[in-house]
Amino acid sequence: MAKKKQRWVSSVRYFNLALSFGITMVVAVFLGLYGGWWIDRRLGTFPVFMLLGIFLGIGIGFYNLWSELNELMEKKPEKESDRGKDESRE
Q: Where are the domains of the chain?
């Protein structure tokens, strides 16, 4: 039963990562789009800053995904090494 619970927690963790990435990407692109559109409207340079804002939003979204994945990968080996120590004590 413990393995089922552990598998469930792992699945929920990855679902949370995917959901977090999706929301972050949509919000970052939308803010870049809106911010670029606002600047273009003020300066009269329609597609320039809007496109720049979209690409900036995509870059920020992927940077956030990269940092979350690196953090997840750093935590995973610690848990596996701790699990091995616990099993050897029993």
A: 22-79
